[in-house]
């Protein structure tokens, strides 16, 4: 299995995101343990795993919200914790709980995000309108205060905010939670288009059908370690006794890889 | 878990200690003052009544403004309002619950000022157990009156503002209330030179000293008068009060409770659903911004740091609860200002010791307001990034530069809020240019150091999950900030006193300014190092 992991990492060079022996411990307990992986330009990489396996911690380490206990995060070859400001310019992030500043309107929030990431004022309003139009319903509430938004609308706003400065790497924790089916489809298309333009995506999700639909490769985390990695067909082959890719359903595959009976 | 509980207990004990220290200090000042008044004979007897009347009026007003400011949030917008409205809890029960919660949170002036005043009065006049029992009974009745009046006023304010068309209306109401209170205090409470002349004139009318009659007439319309007169009579054996005022002491709380239970409850029943539906004052509701139009952002400031600072200001302006807290602190500031301009401070100009003491008090008052504003608005600044802190921490913005930008803004805001009034007070006390310059320098140091200390401690240990600034400022780092500021303010106050005495004896003020400068520089440097270190290693949990 370790050979497969190494082989998977080698395929995606030169990576836009590289995790090098990354570890994060909380009060002595390892949440992420010696994790190495890479995401190449044009690639959508899905992190799956049971609750408490270290997915969200990994995403927070990549987005700079946590500091690693050991190891490095390289974004486009830049060490995130050595040069955080340079590295973060290339990063777009959507957290698992997409809270925004509640006393602002959605449009003001997006303009603030634009200022923080250095999006030029000229053309910023047009870009906001264009991105917001991706999701039905968002343009009509964009001038309402964020504290009146539903969970789904906050998710749409966070997705638009993450894409506003045209990042090279997109890191998303649970991309479609709270989205209506149409918006979930739009989000999927948005990620595919982003990757097709040469961007890299690290997406962390429990929605296996979403992972299957958009991810080029999937990594399964268990107890903070990468238990398996590869494209879904390769992983399916490992999960069936006869090595047939059609043998295991996505759920069976997940349970097999997660070590559940 | 055990460690966290111990830490919470330690913080609580720390705050109890701070309050105990403040109360002990007040007690010592009150006891000394009342003891000195007792030695003056008849005028002293009258002045001790003036003291009691003034203290109770101040407690009453400060408690009421604090009650309404907090009550408008607790009664209508507390986090559990939706849950309690959905629960099978009758509305009168909810109204009573909110009234008690608000009273418990805002009755601190009664405990912190009323307690030491009662103890000092008893000790200065050799009060026995009966005096203390009667005193506590009257303070309890007074507390009921304050709570019931506060609940009524909160219900009236909530009802009046439930469909407030603009923030301008709220601002105008707040400003009008502040002006009315300032005039009431200025004219009715703070003694003028003419009042003193009347008080010191001998004379007995119908068996009662004319000075006491004069003071009773001056405070007759205040609902606090029956309690002040009763306490004075119990402590000194004077003939303050009348059968009417003694009856009023028992009846007023009952009337207050009846008004709260009928008028207050009816207004609450009418306003609660309308207000609970929306947190936006100006009719934004689900659809619009506060202004209802497509907002440009940032409007006034440029660049990432400017945008973040403008966002802070916007959040403050759009939050009615922040307004009410700022208005409360503003009210205290107005009280202090009206005291400075009405009290005959110029008459002590030829007594250096009195000038030095008053200058010390002026700097201490400035320090108190700076600490209070700072704890409420500067200290929580980093924590109030809240659940949206991911935006800032995943952005390419230097947290160190943001800290320095915020420090500049908050130093400016604190200076604008407090410096003019503190300087005006200094002008009223002295015309000496050296002392004026020294005091101005000390006040500037006070502003800069207080802002740096509180911003740094708030940034060093933020709590992104606590949205309430009041809870944030009662954390362990809030306690550390409070203690550091109180100690530092005392040092600067002592330097101001030293400078005043130096001017009186013809020596230089420079050593005192230098001493304050060295202490301030040390604290600012330590705070900046702490903030830089913590911001480098901070995580958004």
Structural notes for this entry:
Chain A is α/β, with parallel strands linked by helices. Chain A is built from eleven helices and ten strands. The longest helix of chain A is centred in the C-terminal third of the chain and has 16 residues, at 181-196. Chain A is globular and about 55 Å long. Residues 1-10 of chain A have low confidence and may be disordered. Chain B folds into two domains: 12-282, no CATH class; 303-541, no CATH class. Chain B is built from 20 helices and two strands. Chain B has a two-stranded antiparallel ribbon. At the A-B interface, helix 3 and helix 4 of A face helix 12 and helix 15 of B.
> Per DSSP, what share of the residues of chain A sits in E-state strands of 2 or more residues?
15-25%
Tell me the series of helices and strands of chain B, N- to C-terminal: HHHHHHHHEEHHHHHHHHHHHH
Largest interface: A-B, 39 and 41 residues
Major beta sheet, strand line-up of chain A: 6-7-8-3-9-10
Which percent bin holds the helix content of chain A?
A: 25-40%
Rg of chain B, rounded, reads: 25 Å
What is the 3D shape of chain B? globular
Radius of gyration of chain A: 18 Å
SSE string of chain A, helices as H and strands as E = HEEEHEEHEHHHHEHEHEEHH
Task: For the record, give the distance between the C-alpha atoms at the N and C termini of chain B, rounded to a whole number.
Answer: 17 Å
End-to-end CA span of chain A: 19 Å
Give start-end ranges of low-pLDDT stretches of chain A. Answer: 1-10
- The helix count of chain A comes to 11
> Which structural class do you get from the secondary structure elements of chain A?
alpha/beta
- Strands across the major sheet of chain B, in which order? 1-2
């Amino acid at each position: 299995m370790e050979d497969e992991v190494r082989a998977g990492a080698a395929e995606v060079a030169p990576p836009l995101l590289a995790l090098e022996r990354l570890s994060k411990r909380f009060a002595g307990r390892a949440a992420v343990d010696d994790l190495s992986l890479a995401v190449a330009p044009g690639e959508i990489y899905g992190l799956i795993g049971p609750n408490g396996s270290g997915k969200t911690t990994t995403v927070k380490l990549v987005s700079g919200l946590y500091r690693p206990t050991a190891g490095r995060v390289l974004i486009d070859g830049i060490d995130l914790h050595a040069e955080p400001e340079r590295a973060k310019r290339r990063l777009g992030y959507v957290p698992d709980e997409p809270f925004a500043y509640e006393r602002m309107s959605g449009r003001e929030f997006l303009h603030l995000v634009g200022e923080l990431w250095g999006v030029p004022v000229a053309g910023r309003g047009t870009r906001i309108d264009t991105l917001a139009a991706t999701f039905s319903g968002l343009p009509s509430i964009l001038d309402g205060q964020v504290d009146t938004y539903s969970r789904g609308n906050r998710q749409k706003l966070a997705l638009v905010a993450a894409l506003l400065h045209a990042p090279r790497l997109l890191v998303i924790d649970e991309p479609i939670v709270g989205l209506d089916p149409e918006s979930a489809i739009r989000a999927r298309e948005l990620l595919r288009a982003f990757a097709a333009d040469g961007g890299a995506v690290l997406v962390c999700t429990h929605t296996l059908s979403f992972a299957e639909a958009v991810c080029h490769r999937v990594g399964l985390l268990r107890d903070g370690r990468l238990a398996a990695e590869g494209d879904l067909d390769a992983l399916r082959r490992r999960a069936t006794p006869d090595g047939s890719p059609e043998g295991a359903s996505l759920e069976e595959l997940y349970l097999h890889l997660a070590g559940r009976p | 878990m055990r460690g966290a509980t111990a830490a919470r207990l330690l913080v609580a004990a720390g705050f109890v200690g701070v309050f105990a220290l403040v109360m002990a200090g007040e007690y010592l000042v009150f006891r000394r003052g009342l003891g000195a008044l007792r030695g003056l004979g008849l005028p002293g007897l009258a002045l001790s009544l003036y003291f009691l009347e003034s203290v109770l009026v101040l407690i009453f007003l400060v408690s009421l403004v604090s009650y309404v400011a907090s009550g408008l949030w607790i009664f209508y917008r507390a986090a559990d309002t939706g849950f309690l409205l959905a629960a099978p809890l009758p509305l009168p029960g909810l109204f009573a619950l909110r009234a008690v919660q608000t009273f418990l949170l805002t009755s601190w002036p009664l405990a912190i000022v009323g307690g030491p005043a009662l103890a000092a009065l008893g000790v200065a006049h050799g009060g026995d157990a009966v005096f203390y029992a009667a005193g506590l009974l009257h303070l309890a009745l007074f507390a009921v009156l304050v709570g019931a009046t506060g609940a009524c006023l909160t219900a009236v304010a909530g009802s009046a503002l439930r469909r407030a068309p603009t923030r301008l209306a709220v601002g105008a109401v707040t400003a009008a209330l502040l002006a009315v209170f300032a005039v009431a205090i200025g004219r009715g409470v703070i003694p003028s030179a003419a009042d003193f002349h009347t008080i010191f004139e001998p004379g007995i009318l119908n068996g009662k000293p004319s000075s006491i009659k004069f003071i009773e007439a001056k405070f007759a319309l205040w609902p606090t008068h029956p309690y002040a007169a009763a306490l004075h009579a119990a402590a000194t054996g004077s003939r303050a009060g009348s059968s009417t005022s003694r009856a009023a002491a028992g009846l007023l709380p009952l009337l207050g409770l009846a008004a709260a239970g009928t008028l207050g409850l009816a207004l609450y029943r009418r306003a609660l659903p309308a207000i609970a539906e929306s947190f936006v004052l100006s009719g934004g509701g689900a659809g619009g911004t506060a202004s209802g139009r497509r907002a440009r952002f940032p409007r006034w400031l440029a660049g990432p740091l400017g945008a973040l600072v403008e966002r802070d200001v916007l959040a403050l302006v759009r939050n009615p609860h922040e307004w009410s807290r700022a208005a409360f602190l503003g009210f205290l500031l107005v009280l202090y200002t009206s005291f400075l301009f009405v009290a005959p401070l110029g008459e002590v100009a030829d007594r250096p010791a009195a000038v030095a003491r008053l200058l010390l008090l002026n700097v201490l008052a400035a320090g108190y307001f700076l600490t209070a504003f700072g704890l409420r608005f500067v200290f929580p600044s980093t924590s109030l990034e809240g659940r949206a802190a991911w935006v800032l921490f995943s952005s390419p913005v230097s947290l160190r530069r943001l800290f320095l930008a915020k420090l500049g803004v908050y130093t400016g805001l604190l200076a604008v809020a407090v410096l003019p009034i503190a300087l005006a007070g200094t002008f009223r006390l002295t015309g000496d240019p050296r002392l004026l310059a020294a005091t101005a320098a000390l006040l500037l140091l006070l502003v800069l150091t207080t802002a740096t200390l509180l911003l740094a401690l708030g940034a060093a240990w933020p709590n992104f999950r606590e949205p309430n600034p009041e809870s944030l400022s009662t954390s362990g780092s809030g306690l550390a900030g409070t203690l550091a500021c109180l100690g530092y303010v005392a040092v600067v106050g002592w330097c101001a006193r030293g400078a005043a005495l130096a001017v009186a004896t013809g020596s230089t003020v420079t050593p005192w300014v230098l001493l304050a400068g060295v202490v301030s520089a040390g604290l600012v440097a330590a705070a900046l190092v702490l903030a830089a270190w913590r911001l480098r290693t901070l995580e958004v949990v």
